[in-house]
Amino acid sequence: MRKVICILCALVLLTGCVERKYIERLGIITVIGYDLLEEGFLEGTLIFFQFDPNANSVSQIITSRANSAKGIRQDANLKSSKQLVSGQLRLAVFGSKLAEKGVMRVTDTLARDAAVSDLLYMTIAEEDAKAILSSNKMEDAADIGNYLNSMIRKNIRNEVLPYSTLHQFQHDYYDLGRDPILPMLNLEDGKPVLRHLALMQDDRLVGKLPVKKGFYLKLIESRFEAGHLEVGLPREKFKEYFKSDRNHEDIDQMFVTFDEIKSKSKLELISPESLEFRVNITLEGRILEISDDLKIQDPKVVKLLEEEFASLIEKEIESVVEVFKENQVDPIGFGQLYNSKRPLKEKGEWREMIPDISVDAQVKTRIVRHGIIK
């Protein structure tokens, strides 16, 4: 009984030692941007919420400069009456100059901060992070931070963007035989948009891939549950099956939109000596729209669509792999598979081998529905 009383007394005393934080005095950082300045200085752009009934706006932005990520927050605290805290940090944006030099000087600090969630989203600005976060062109979002976070999260959920959290980045960075890949933000008419994916060598930006090409990246490495894709197929192949020309006779492609795409893939290392890989993909989806007046009810047309769709995907996969080889990056994880057969000593060893890999894509497609009539 005496032990129980001692424990209870200790608990009461310990609760009195916890630092009290009043929400009215806090500036809750939700988004932060990092840019590289001359002589290695960092410029940080912080967006934070303040719960002050007397404030003109609930969202504020502060720009600060320092030599380190921690120093940026310390300098920002000198410019605000609020105590800035990072417990609700949801998005980090890295300027292109910093990304080209390497983002680990910042991400390592974020990963070590117990207050920062490892589900923090990471993106790269095609120019400056400050310009992205200073934009005031957004739809009905309360502030630019909430707008960007919602845009990234929505497109990841819709299987348009790869999963780009701090945890995933750290995992791909330290994993032997794989590189991280992150979404890129750009400004069009002053509004932030997503147009490219950043190709990384370890933590350095070395190239970019159009967001739409990211479909084929995911097709290789994982699976789709409800994907969406618009493709252009050669009109000449379908000419005999047109009901009418629809005034498209001067266009050499027929555009088809697929949705509800579901896929499975299996990646194999065929020959470690010649670095030959093979990926078998099975894919099914629904035709949502066709630009031409096609006899879609004809089984021959459906079969031809499936064949041409599969052929196009195989070619696109080959072209995407060529981009990876040119930039000597491996966001798919070919090196992981190779490492399981022939252990690698370091990432640099696989980096030199990437330009020599070959990937044979074998795709089977099936059209399960083609409109509300079927």
TrEMBL record:
It is a lipid-anchor. It holds the Pfam family Spore_GerAC. Residues 20-186 form the Spore germination protein N-terminal domain. The keyword Nucleotidyltransferase does not apply. Residues 197-371 form the Spore germination GerAC-like C-terminal domain. It comes from the Bacteria. InterPro entries: GerAC_N, Spore_GerAC-like, Spore_GerAC-like_C, Spore_GerAC_C_sf. Its main location: membrane. Keywords: Germination, Lipoprotein, Membrane, Palmitate, Signal. The keyword Lipoprotein applies. It is found in: Membrane. Belongs to the GerABKC lipoprotein family. NCBIfam families: spore_ger_x_C. This is Spore germination protein. It comes from Pontibacillus salipaludis.
